[in-house]
Amino acid sequence: MTITIDSAPARTFSGTLRSAAGQLTRSPILIATVALFLLSWAIAPGSVSRSSIDSLLPFAAILAITAIGQTLVVMLKGIDLSVPGMMTMGALVSTQFAAKNSDNVALALVVVAVIAVVVGLINGLVIAVFSVTPLVATLAMNALLLGAALAYSGGTPTRAPQSVSDFALDKTLGVSNTVWLSVLLVVVVALATKRTVWGRRLVAVGANESAARIAGVRVITLKVSGYVAAALCYSGAGVLLAGYISTPNTNVGNQYLLPAIAAVVVGGTALNGGRGKILGTAIGALFLSQLTQLVLSLGAPSSTQLLIQAAVIAVAVGLQSVKGKSSLTRLFPQKLPRSKPV
């Protein structure tokens, strides 16, 4: 008996877009995001003004890029706590390495990419080969990265190269280049997870690793590739963040760990692995960014922001659980269709 997971019927590009659009219109996170913007307009109009939206979108885009990397790991039934370290390393290396080499941005980006690939390889191999819990492996990697970033920078922030800052701050067609880059990444990763062999195998490994191995999937290789792709997303987000804020410090990535996980969860990706919702994650990043802006515009302290993020994660996880779904069914019972006379 031969088991295969690569025989899914081919779908046209337009069919994929129509399917994605149909799912998007029924997405709870999209409805919640629209409701949040309407609520913001009603109680704090300044939080949805043109200038506020212009300042919101780049940070939402950076969070979306980070959360997309986390989504790939969660699809593999893992969790990646090396987000702060990888973002900080990407931000500091891209600024200080370029400054020490005559503002050679291209070479700095190559160095950042190589570091991200090495970090992803180590994370993936430690988890897949040595069966170390992802929580422990990535937490240790995060401590290593933060220590290395502190040693490399000496704790002194350096101004980002002008070309990186120009790209992050400039606009194309009235929209920040950072936003366009995040949109491109969302489209590429969404198509990769839906339409490619790699994406179908990623889903298979996350859903049932033993069955995927029996089907002939190289589980170790696939897990490593997922963690490498995630690390590249984190490092890219760190570079963009460095360009946007100009002078990143050694704590620049710390504030993105919890929001990235929250964006994944509220976007509809279950923490027990399997299929992920890349577009939902991006909308979740926008939702959380606007929620933060609304809270701050109302004069609430930063501690309230963290409490709200934790509450959002708890509610989203509860709604995804079987108990949460059954509770919703009891609260909002579906009407059975009436039988038609013969």
Considering DSSP H and I runs of 4 or more, what fraction of the residues is helical? over 70%
CA-based shape: globular
Count of helical stretches: 15
For the sheet with most strands, the description reads:
2 strands, antiparallel
Give the N-terminus to C-terminus distance in angstroms: 46 Å
List the uncertain runs: 6-10
Strand content range: under 5%
Order of H and E elements: HHHHHHHEEHHHHHHHH
Report the count of strand segments: 2
The secondary-structure class comes to mainly alpha
Q: Please state the CA-atom Rg, rounded to the nearest Å.
A: 21 Å
Strands of the biggest beta sheet: in what spatial order? Answer: 1-2
Question: On the 0-100 scale, what is the average pLDDT?
Answer: 85
Explain what this protein looks like in three dimensions:
With 342 residues, the chain is mainly alpha-helical. Helices cover 72% and strands 1% of the residues. It contains 15 helices and two strands. It has helices spanning 13-25, 28-43, 50-75, 83-100, 105-128, 134-153, 162-169, 177-195, 197-207, 209-214, 219-245, 257-266, 278-297, 302-320, 322-331, and strands at residues 171-172, 175-176. A two-stranded antiparallel ribbon has the order 1-2. The longest helix is centred in the last third of the chain and has 27 residues, at 219-245. It is globular and about 55 Å long. It starts with 12 loop residues before the first helix and ends in an 11-residue tail after the last helix. The model is unreliable at 6-10 (pLDDT under 50).
